[in-house]
Amino acid sequence: MKHIDLQIQTDQPVSRIAPEIFGHISEHLGTCMYGGIYVGEDSSIPNTDGVRNDVIEAFRQIRMPVMRWPGGCFADDYHWCDGIGPKEQRRKRVSRYWGHTTETNAFGTHEFFSLCEKIGCEPYLAGNLGSGTVQELSDWIEYLTFEGDSDLSELRRKNGREQPWHLKYLGIGNENWGCGGNMRPEYYADEYRRYQSFCENYGENKLYKIACGANGDDYAWTETMMANVKSSMMHGLSVHYYTVPSGIWEKKGDALRFTDAEYYATVSRALYMDTLLKRHIAIMDQYDPAGEIGLVVDEWGNWYDPAEGENPHFLRQQSTMRDAMTAAINLNLFARYSKRISMANLAQAVNVLQALLLTEGAALIKTPTYHVFDLFKGHQGGMLVPTVCTELTAGSETKVPMLSHAASVKDGVLTFTAANCSLEDAAELTVSADGFTVHTAEACVLYSDSCRVHNSFDTPETVTVHPLDVTADGNTIRLTLPPCAVVSVTVS
Ligand code: AHR
């Protein structure tokens, strides 16, 4: 057992934590959309307009704030006109990036916007810059958001949607340094400027335009974009970073079979996000000291080798307590950098990479990562307040800080989240909430007796949330966090 003193400076609010920091991406990849989210109206799996009811309910429970769609790499090969109108007439295409499967386009624009309405989340469209045209993107926005009289708004009405939709978040290209066209940043910056010029705000609809950002530590990309694109043209600039346990893409590591040393290496690589955020933000601060352009971490998560027997193009993987730990670490970091981060999207929502949910036919399980988002939802829209704690490390070969933490205040409620990264030691926490009158404190914890434990279709509740004992005395809160555990404490 290690003792940790933690001070929460509730009287020194820093910045609002955008709810969108707890966002997601769902791509036409493997069984994320087809089978995972969308099963079609005729399916025997309970659904509403073809969308699985269990998925809608699970997403609503965590208050999913935003969903990015249709990709990923798929976005720069997607032509929205293929996915509107009568389903039997929709164009079949090859899924170029994800295993040359047939894309039926049964799930398209109307289905996506209706999905977001069901979840109660903001839609975030990833527009096609790589293989599309300026006209195509411009037309999509008119089709979606124009209330007046035009052929495109008439077509939308004919296809069943009278009123325009509200569309805030618009990405213009995805990973254009790679699958989105293998562009140089200078070239992309010019293309971005051109594309965004034709993305119109119709009526009350105001677009928040997001440019493709760096691949991990490609700081030159961020620098080029910031130097060449003004905040009036670019409201957000993205960055993508995946945690690969080995650090080697060709042999990433297994989702379920890993040693303690690999656990600590994964935690350490997840913590690299801290360095990335710091350095990208420093560049943004230099060009945009007023903080007008948001950093959008619109793909993040753990990426393992495909399991035996799985289609390697489908990127399906299991999720253990290790994934819960890195999810908590990342979410705490995003909250701590919320002054600049306007959104973050875990890859991906269902059946792909560090998924929230896994499905098999009619069955559905919630992964440990899902429960982390449930535990962290109290931070959505809260004011970040500083947390300072005793610095202890965990691990032997690779050392990592023992505790990851963040706190926020919203409507008089203090939410404090922490992850004990140690596999060996419990963390006995003494938390002082400076400037806060504590009446009640409640804690919920996600833990299991091993970091390798996961939920399966036979044992779906192996890793789940439990209440945790917590005592409050004056403005001091005490609790003991088991090894490899994530906690959320709500104080009012
Ligand atoms: O999330 C899977 C893929 O990872 C996305 O399609 C792409 O943007 C990234 O490389």
Distance between termini?
Answer: 28 Å
CATH architecture of the largest domain: Alpha-Beta Barrel
Q: How many separate domains make up the residues?
A: 2
Provide the residue-averaged pLDDT.
97
CATH fourth-tier homologous superfamily of the largest domain: Glycosidases
Report the strand count: 27
Instruction: Determine the CATH topology of the largest domain.
Output: TIM Barrel
- Helix count equals 9
Order the strands across the largest sheet as they lie in space. Answer: 2-5-8-9-10-11-12-13
Structural class from helices and strands? alpha/beta
The major pleated sheet works out as: 8 strands, parallel, barrel
The coarse overall form would be globular
Bound ligand species: alpha-L-arabinofuranose
Give the % helix.
Answer: 10-25%
Which strand-content bin applies to the residues?
25-35%
Radius of gyration computed on alpha carbons: 22 Å
CATH top level of the largest domain is Alpha Beta
Word description of this protein:
This protein has two domains: 2-9 and 386-491, Immunoglobulin-like (Sandwich); 19-379, Glycosidases (TIM Barrel), CATH 3.20.20.80. It has nine helices and 27 strands. It has 492 residues and is an alpha/beta fold. It has helices spanning 53-61, 109-119, 134-145, 151-158, 185-197, 219-228, 260-287, 321-336, 368-376, and strands at 2-9, 23-25, 47-48, 51-52, 66-69, 93-94, 102-103, 122-127, 169-172, 208-215, 236-243, 294-302, 341-347, 357-360, 363-366, 383-385, 387-389, 393-394, 400-401, 403-410, 413-420, 427-434, 441-447, 465-468, 471-473, 476-481, 485-491. The chain has an eight-stranded parallel β-barrel, surrounded by five helices. Helix 5 packs across helix 6 (219-228) and helix 6 (219-228) runs parallel beside helix 7. It binds alpha-L-arabinofuranose. Alpha-L-arabinofuranose binds next to loops.
